[in-house]
Amino acid sequence: MNSSVIVIASFTPKDGAEHEVEKILQGMVSPSRGEAGCTCYDLYQKEASTSFTLFESYKNQAALEEHRQTEHFKNYRAQIIELLKEPIQVNILQEINAAKR
């Protein structure tokens, strides 16, 4: 099956690092949306919180793997880890029955 892949990634910044984490995540939006296999790349902030969530959608698993090999992905990972209070929480979902956007 060559179904779409959804990634939901949550980030909890260390105290005082909220603006830097947001800046790094904002820097991922445009280049990720420009990838051929990316169908959605949206950044959210939890209400009344300093935590952030990325909602990503890719055409298939291969497109997600291509995303993870880009320079912007590698740079973001190298920068963001030390700014987080806890490890990135990542959920990867395989489409079973989803409405098309």
Explain how this protein is built.
The protein is an alpha+beta fold and 101 residues long. It is globular, with a radius of gyration of 14 Å. The protein has a single domain, classed as Alpha-Beta Plaits, CATH 3.30.70. The model has no long low-confidence stretch (mean pLDDT 94).
In short:
It is built from three helices and four strands. By secondary structure, it is α+β, with helices and mostly antiparallel strands.
Strand portion: 25-35%
Report the mean per-residue pLDDT as an integer. 94
Q: Figure out the total of helices.
A: 3
CATH class: Alpha Beta
Helix content: 25-40%
CATH topology type? Alpha-Beta Plaits
The name of the CATH architecture is 2-Layer Sandwich
Structural class: alpha+beta
Q: How many whole angstroms does the radius of gyration measure?
A: 14 Å
Strands, count: 4
Biggest sheet statistics: 4 strands, antiparallel
| Number of individual domains | 1
Stretches where pLDDT is under 50 for at least 5 consecutive residues are: none
Which geometry do the CA atoms define? globular
SSE order, one letter for each helix or strand: EHEEHHE
Strand order of the largest sheet: 2-3-1-4
